[in-house]
Fold this sequence. Notes:
Helices cover 42% and strands 20% of the residues. It is an alpha+beta fold. Strand 15 and strand 16 form a beta hairpin. Helix 1 packs across helix 4 and helix 7 crosses helix 10.
Amino acid sequence: MIRAYKFLMRPTVRQEQALGEMLRDHCSLYNGALQERRDAYRHSSKTSVKYGIQSGQLKEIRAFDPERQGRWSFSSQQASLRRLDKAMQAFFRRVKSGETPGYPRFRGVNWFDTVDFPKDGDGCRWDSTPHDPVTRVRFQGVGHVKVNQHRAVAGRVKTVSVKREGRKWFVVLTAEQDHPGPLPATDSVVGIDLGIANFLADSNGEFVPNPRHGRTAAAKLEAAQQTLCRFPRRKAKDRTRNHQRAVDKVAQLHGKVRRKRLDHAHKTALDLVRRHDFIAHEDLKIRNMTRSPAPKPDPDQAGAFLPNGGAAKAGLNRSIHDAGWGVFLTILYAKAESAGREVIAVDPRNTSRECPECGHTAKENRPTQEKFHCVACAHTAHADTVGATNVLRAGLVHRDANPA
């Protein structure tokens, strides 16, 4: 089992400068490799540059530019090239499936925030001074950097990554561990219905309120972004101090919202995993749900468009993204796997319109967002609870039809 750890680093001024140079040089390598692929494709559609070819050129690149490329780990540079190769493979895979993806872009220095080291001990060393009471991680070309290790790392460290978030630096580890034993059985099953008014409703009639972290911070974010918009767009090296402060303020507020959303998702998922052996949820297609409505051209006036509800849909999309359903479900699956629990996704169609008592399905059964009133048997309940109940029943049927 692989588990990730993320710790805050405390670099000195010189180390922070070296870390920034490391990101810059890896970004330059990434963009150069992308340019080579574009040129090869433009000159001959039959010519393609693969990862193996570009990795084989690294030795010459490092010898040609020892100051910028030769000082860093060979393995970390290979990881950056492999990162580009994955982006290209994903692009062509989406093209073959009929989608219209964008071609991989060049990365700006401020948008290239991660450098990966595929193996601990190759260009990096976690806990490089084990006899020192302060934990340190060593990076080639940077040195021994202090780490604020707030919990113990269990298992053998496999990979190490450097990540920049705003003005903070983090080290991300992946460690291989023995699979932990399952949690004690609770003989409890539950269905959950994700929503906007309530973040989560379960089949037992309980609700988890939606914290709406993005909406809570919207006023501060708007003020910070308005301040940032007063400055002309410049490269990072050409920014004034006030401009840089405005950039850092926006990044700080976004980071705070993201951390709050993650914390809420972790706590909610952990509570479900501890209390229930089996969890069923709707198989939501979040990307489709947040897609903007297509424009409606006006047949009577060239160049004009009819109302298509775009403004209302934009507000709904913001609420869906603010709730963070995708992040929550990812965390739920990870925690369930670690605890030996079972999670099943079911078809969400008509889960909030089907009566759990008589089985009658009709749009009129849900007259409002919260109210469910069956027009056949007069059963009344909260619409989200009804949806969670139907999700649970569908999940149990799926489990019984496909035993492990």
